[in-house]
Amino acid sequence: MKDEARDQPIEVLECNWQAFEVFMRCDPSLSVGMGGGMYTGYASAEIQCVMELLGVRKSDRVNVFDAVKHMGRVWCEVRNAARATA
Hints:
Blueprint: H1 17-25, E1 29-33, E2 36-41, H2 44-54, H3 61-85
Helix pairs in contact: 1-2, 1-3, 2-3
């Protein structure tokens, strides 16, 4: 089954660009149990590592970290809802 949303262009505001770059390079955590899998978010250590690899300035890291965690929560909500209705 093709994910049609992947083919849709998105607009990223300049103020969110660094956070978006970090977000796109991180992988979500998936917890698996008897009822199936559920996305639980993005590991803080992974976000920190990606910020360092991309050279995010130390003065920007708190804001970028918070933005990525927020993006991850929203992404997980959407993906988990889609998995529940599939």
